[in-house]
């Protein structure tokens, strides 16, 4: 492990989060933590389980899963170094995600890194922390995402984008490639490759290789 | 949707399951359910949240997440059509996974499909349902997995294997490619491709393309 690599992670949940946006990155971090001890806080507005099914107007027959938070946004520990913000249908509900927006805005100055997956970058944009930065998002929701951050330099053709201490990924599965790049950057290429082998994952190491945005 | 495609799914959880083994496939099924109404039962020995961290001898600093079950193995609904069995460190604990083994053995005759990811095939092998069938598993744990099913025709070089109504995948992320193949088989290629595009996932459509087992 490189000196000074982060060890305290948090994930910002809300009703209607996308499961793979969260568990793609977290599964790699779970494996990382077997050799590099980490801490993980799972944040929500309350300590009740948080479902991937949006609370408002759920589609009949839409299935989902519920995850147990460890802390509320109000009582979140102050030593968070890396905050992960997923996307999902819930991001389309401004009222529902306002506590996440507020938490990003208030915690960002103390964070070492902010990571978003999919439409999580729309939530971060609303917090103002992406203003003047390069960022990307889900390709099918890109125009809507851009409307959430008119002062952000949105980059459509990207698997993920790093701008300083902010990493944003494209839709859903792109978060997996981003977290491997983040792990390589923070803990070394060898460890990232080892976790990918354990996961039998053929990771994309080129952030500009985006098969889903059409011609560059 | 093709006539007769399954709609009732269950996932068999146990302490120390691998997060991505579960949420890779389930995220694709979640998206599928937005256009094709599904049911999902999340099974465990009790209704308490189930952690990805093994109960026995957890590594200090090992992080994890907890998922809320909907039913116990004892009270599982009788209309399950597809059972998904993940792998993970918990599969190394025979006592812990015995309820899963028992449930697979008792429910298999009524199932339409059994799907396993990673070392989930070792659990299915212990239930005897893989005897005489082709199956695969995690590459790094392959020899141990084989010891759990001496009468199984284990296939090392495979991303996933279908033998009749049993689908088994290689380690962790291979479950994602397998579920897309299963969705294509059951609900049509077009829908599988559409879900992969929504997920921005470049799926492998060749079950024999296994970059992690060494030369074929």
UniProtKB/TrEMBL annotation, chains A, B:
The keyword 4Fe-4S does not apply. The keyword Transferase applies. It comes from the Eukaryota. Signal peptide: none annotated. Residues 10-183 form the DJ-1/PfpI domain. Pfam families: DJ-1_PfpI. It comes from Hypocrea jecorina (strain ATCC 56765 / BCRC 32924 / NRRL 11460 / Rut C-30) (Trichoderma reesei). Keywords: Glutamine amidotransferase, Transferase. One of its GO terms (molecular function) is transferase activity. This is Class I glutamine amidotransferase-like protein.
